[in-house]
Amino acid sequence: MFDFLLWPFMIRAILIGLTLALSTGFISSFLVSKNQSLIGDGLAHISFTGIIIGVLFAQEPIWIAIPFVIIAAIIIKWLMRNKLVEGDTAIGLVSSFSFAIGLILISTSSGFNRSVESMLVGSIFSTTWLDIWVSFSVLILTSLFIITGYSKLFSITFDDNYAKFSGIKIAYYDYALAILTAIIIVIGVKTIGTLLISAFIIFPAVSSQMISRSFKQMVIRGLMINAVVSILGIIFAHLLGIPAGSTIIVVHGILFMSLFGFTKLKGRD
Amino acid sequence: MIISAEHVKVEYGNSVVLSDIDFYVNKGDYLNIIGPNGSGKTTLIKLLTNLQKPSQGKITIAPVVFGYLPQHLSQSAQIPANVYEVLKLSNAKKPTDEAIKKLLSDMGMLDFIYQPMNKLSGGEQQRVYIIRALLSNPDVLILDEPTSALDPEFRKFFYAYIEKLNDQGMTIIHVTHDLSDGLRHGSRILELDQVVKFFGTFEQYQLLGHKKGGHHHHV
Fold it and tell me: pTM to 2 decimals?
């Protein structure tokens, strides 16, 4: 009955879902704890335009989209760090501006051969092996960055003033995390979709936070939650014939609400 | 000399926070920095901890290890980081578990070692940050309003502990708006109100007619 799990498109979908879930799971706890959940959403809107430019001018859109989104991420971070505009505002400025450009490009280019809808909600079952390799490489890069920089990233996340006092180069970690997020988001937009990928960054941290008694636990449980939920979501989506990205997020939502109810009930004793 | 400031001025935009600041700190000193709210105490601490550069003037700091207890704890309230993680990971030189447990037990906090920080009371959190400052084995310990969240009993214990460290040669820089704390424990006083109002010994300060605990400012 589970034969479909061995179908090539299913294997590709699960591989991309898993690598993406682990990459986003790794950065989730750090971004959400720093109140930067929305950077994922902003970068997703920017990826939308990046991919459109890629489709119009290159064979493989991600090679255009990745540098495009990295530059946007650096600009957002730069605006935030120099306090030119407040955090969320910087994300809103850059992302809505580039999203608008993307929409204009679509409406003016006759050669645009993709449906906008597929870009908004993604299409995990049409994942290519190239997507998987890029996603896998990004996962390796992300895990190396998080594992080797863990104590410094923890210090910055927990108390950035003290981290600065301790001589940690906050700017380096800040930009590096934003650049990694940018690459992860581009792959996520292709597969999960522009509108939903940021949930991959938000849900693991908020769910695992409720059941963790240390930061390390929060990171590890966030990774596990994201991986399990993604695979379940892909399987349900296939069985029910509904979009995979949306299904994954709905499973995340149900898990979050259950944990929330559970911890509230437990807290009452 | 561990620290010397010459004609230091700090301004944010058009407002001058500190101007013409001169003072020094010698090894083993116990310096109390006092002054009302808005007098520039916190800015001065930022200068000493490298979180801020002077707009004018020069501040020279010897290459010694600093320990720092910030006044405003900027920890993220949401994340479930526990006491052990905060103490183990916050200092550049990772302290040993032994050192962590020793200080936790000195401060009566050993039972809290695996408790998430956001489940602790303000006073308990403050103790963890005191331990964090001490774990770097500092030559100079900067305490910015250290007792603001502490109960009176622990406060007494805390000052006795700090005085003992000072006796052993640790330089202490203690910021307070509560003059009774400042004067009781002072070897030197630096009174600020954007400029240096007074810089000298506790005895000289008393001769000027200042009384211990004479005036309280509460935030």
Answer: 0.86
